[in-house]
Every structure is written in C-alpha cells, then in structure tokens.
C-alpha cells in the first residue's frame, strides 16, 4: 500500500515537474572540478593539453596548459590554492563542461582564478545566454587564493559552462589560471513581514570551496537577477567578499560580507516601500578576526538619509549593532553600504580586508 502511494507520488511529481525532476540539487565541484583527475601522459606535450578531450570531463579549445602549482620552467611561480593542479588558458582559449540543471533556478559558480602576468587579464564566464567578464587585475589575496562567484539562470535543462580567455597577449605564456570550479543551486529568500530586506543575514550565497580560507569574491554584477548573493547587488568597480563562519568571525549565523575594497565596492538592495513612510534600518558592523585592524567606517544610505558608523577593529571579531530612520520617497528605496577606508591585513599587506556587515533589518516605524 505504502509503496503504491509512493509510486503514485513519484508519478505525479514526474508529471508536474517534467524534465526538471531529472536534475538533482547541485552543490560541490563539477566533474573533475578541481582538475586533480590527470590527463593521460599521451594527451600532454610538456604542459600543453593535446586534443579536445585531453582534460578529463572537460572540452578544450585553443592552447590550454595543465600545470602543477609552484615554480614553473619559464621562471614564473603559480600558486594553486585548491589542490595541486590547475589549467592556464592561453590567448582566446577556453574549457567547458555540459551539466544538467533546472531551468529557471538560480545557480552560482564558485571558482579559483588568478592572473599570471599581464595586469589587464580578463576571464569570461559563459552560460548562454548569459556572459560575464571578470577583470583579474586586482589581487585581493597576496598568495593567489582568490575565489570568485558568478550567478546564472539557465533557460534549458542542460547548459554548457564555459571559461574563456578573451585576451590576446604577446606572450603566449600569459593568461588566467583556473584551479577549481564548483556550483551551488540557490534559493532566493523573500522579504517577510518582519523584515523588508531579502537575504538579510547573507545566509544564502555561493559555495565555499573545500579548505578555502579566503572567502568568495562577489564581482560587480551587470544583472541583479542573477547575483550569486541573492537579493543583493554589488555596485561600483570592485568586489565584496562573502565570508563563512568556518574561517572567519561573523556576527550572526553562518555567513556575512566583508567590505574589502573601500569606496570602490558597495553592496545594495532595492526595497519596496510606501512613499513618505518612515522605516527603521538596523545592521551590524564588525571585524572578521582576520588580522584586519584599525579605524573603520561603514556608510549606509537609504533614500536621502545616511549613517556613518565608526568601528575600531582590534581584530578580535567584535561587532556592534546600529540603526537609523529613513523616510521613503517612492515605492522603491535603495539601501547601500560601503566602507569609507581601505585596509590591509597586518600580517599580510598584500591582502585587502575591511569591516564586516551582517544582519540587515528594515521595518516600518509604527
Ligand atoms: C582539507 O584539509 C584537511 C586538513 O588539512 C585535509 O585532511 C583534507 O584532505 C583537505 N580536503 C581537501 C578536499 O583538500
Ligand atoms: C530600530 O529598531 C531597533 C530594534 O527594534 C531599536 O532598538 C532601535 O531603537 C530602533 N531605532 C530607531 C532609530 O528607531
């Protein structure tokens, strides 16, 4: 009897959800996503992958090198933060993999990427019809452990995830290094009666690579709908860092954001509001206990109202909660946060850091 009911349920689900039922919840590395499954020796000519299918589970186009982290024959040093192996994309080269997904769902890719020589190296991430160009100019961590996230919403049940180097450098030994690729399906939270802000504690966000202690950089988005941090958009020029409680001190829950690039990176959200009504915006500011010391300041904006929040970081993972009232001027109000100053870690001047933002709450004032 129970079996019959179960079968019936499964049949109904299949009927109503169609092919989407075939895709399972995705969270973790893509197949050979850390590139540790090695090519056959016959598919390698020194470090160059020979043939379209030389890299297990991936398809390659153009000059793609399979490298091991550390000093390289040409005198360069490649840091590989996730595992031992990585790929380097030469001029106009790409690697791709086709995966099963649920059309209409939001996904975030998380990948370790860094430039090898030229300042202006760019990595394109393509999941048609979406495409993002990530400038790799800024090194956020000095030891090559930068990890990025990029979001997309598929329009069919299989998509091809492609990483492409659009650049043409004189030196063919240049081009971005990719050392791990993971994916996670996201569930965009909705505003509630108790909080108009969506994803207010930044709890829903991209996958953290295993053993990655650098957080995940959220690059400025062209499209809010596909933000890897649902509900939020990254504005201006540089990235904001998504941090987890496993490796950082976060004020509440499992995650928060670290404002790592001063005034060059802001995080924002658009709220539905009632014109001329007053709202109370509450949020917490702190430090991630990651060697980021000094006088910090977070600036918050809502409609025409602002609040500057000074915070003195001693790197102890402390935080404070503040609030201010704003008056909505229209049916949509943008709230924005950024750090007034730039900071680097005391133990590592090459690594950008900054104040932590968490637990944003917006409620109408009675
Ligand atoms: C993560 O780190 C632990 C401890 O250093 C190690 O045992 C484990 O193998 C690592 N996992 C991966 C996937 O690298
Ligand atoms: C906003 O709400 C918080 C929490 O209820 C309260 O502690 C705070 O005093 C309020 N702030 C303003 C400016 O109304």
Automatic annotation (TrEMBL):
Domain annotation DUF642: ranges: 28-184, 197-362
Query: Which GO terms of the cellular component aspect does the record hold?
Result: plasma membrane
Cited InterPro entries? DGR2-like_dom, Pectin_Meth_Modulator
Alphabetical list of Pfam families matching this protein: DUF642
Per UniProt, the keywords (alphabetical) are: Cell wall, Glycoprotein, Secreted, Signal
Q: Which residues form the signal peptide?
A: 1-22
The main place the protein resides is secreted
Record flagged with keyword Transport: no
The superkingdom of the source organism is Eukaryota
Name of the protein in its database record: DUF642 domain-containing protein
Q: Which source organism?
A: Carpinus fangiana
